[in-house]
Amino acid sequence: QTLGATEVEISFGVQGTYEQIRRLINLLELSRQFVIIGGITLNSGDAQMLSLDLQLKTIFRDEQPDVATKPL
Q: The sheet that has 5-16: what strands, in order across it?
């Protein structure tokens, strides 16, 4: 956890064609939310379908600072 922020990580798998996988990654890159692609694992199932495991992270600014960090 970063001071004044909360880091959230999610991992998930998807399947699709090469074009669908490229589109997904492009949409993540264009997201208004700050998204870090922490890891990608790509496997081919057959000639048309790919399997992709993604690890994504984002950071949210804490709305109220921790009481212990407030100056007296």
A: 5-16, 50-61, 36-44
